[in-house]
């Protein structure tokens, strides 16, 4: 059994007995490898986002949170590669870190043969870059909607003027060339769009404001048609 298939099999073994643990020794015997190799495999799965933790004690071992994992996903290899390409295109967006952690979870949840075929197909796909990627979105901006806290921004406008603003995050707008943070700007007392590559500094305050609705009129951007992301 190669390592890719073994990682998938370890997840399935832990899912089958969850929330009960399996010891490193038991898993090593099951897959005919050393306990040290099992520990390395578990570490790799944890780093890819699989919710496995160690339970101490004589009857302890490794446990998997079955509520936060998927059963085998019936995606075709073509579908998995399509999703991989889409996730790759999120590198310069606020969702870069989430995209990087999502793909290993997707592959871990696929049937073993399909996951292997998807990897082989992906190896034949190449993306051409211009060598000038957009600046990475700061983590505190990328996670602004999840944390819900007021951000203190240093922002440079189109004229190069630097201002300091407290902003209540409301959403994002993405275009082919730039991403914008939508927020209630307390300096201007209204909704504003902040181009993320013009944010020169950002700090997260302790304040969690009451939620503000984002009206359709707030998205009346003159140079493009705005469509909302819909997950069905």
Automatic annotation (TrEMBL):
PROSITE patterns: WYL
Residue intervals of the WYL domain: 141-203
InterPro entries: CBASS_pafABC_assoc_protein, HTH_11, WH-like_DNA-bd_sf, WH_DNA-bd_sf, WYL_dom
Superkingdom of origin: Bacteria
Pfam families from the UniProt entry: HTH_11, WYL
Residues annotated as domain Helix-turn-helix type: 6-62
Record-given protein name: YafY family transcriptional regulator
Species of provenance: Cryobacterium zhongshanensis
């Amino acid at each position: 059994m190669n390592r890719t298939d073994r990682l998938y099999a370890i997840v399935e073994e832990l899912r089958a007995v969850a929330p009960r643990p399996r010891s490193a020794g038991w898993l090593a015997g099951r897959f005919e490898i050393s306990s040290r190799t099992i520990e390395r495999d578990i570490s790799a799965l944890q780093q890819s986002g699989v919710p496995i933790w160690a339970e101490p004690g004589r009857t302890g071992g490794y446990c998997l949170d079955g509520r936060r994992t998927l059963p085998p996903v019936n995606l075709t290899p073509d579908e998995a590669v399509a999703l991989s390409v889409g996730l790759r295109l999120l590198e310069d967006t606020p969702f870069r870190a989430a995209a990087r952690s999502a793909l290993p979870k997707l592959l871990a949840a696929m049937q073993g043969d399909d996951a292997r075929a998807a990897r082989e197909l992906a190896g034949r796909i190449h993306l051409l870059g211009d060598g000038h990627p957009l600046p990475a979105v700061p983590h505190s901006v990328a996670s602004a909607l999840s944390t819900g806290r007021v951000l203190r921004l240093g922002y440079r406008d189109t004229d190069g003027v630097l201002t300091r603003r407290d902003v209540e995050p409301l959403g994002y707008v993405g275009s082919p060339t730039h991403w914008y943070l939508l927020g209630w700007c307390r300096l201007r007392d209204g909704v504003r769009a902040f181009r993320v590559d013009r944010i020169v500094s950002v700090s997260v305050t302790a304040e969690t404001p009451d939620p503000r609705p984002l009206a359709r009129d707030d998205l009346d951007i003159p140079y493009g048609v705005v469509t909302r992301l819909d997950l069905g």
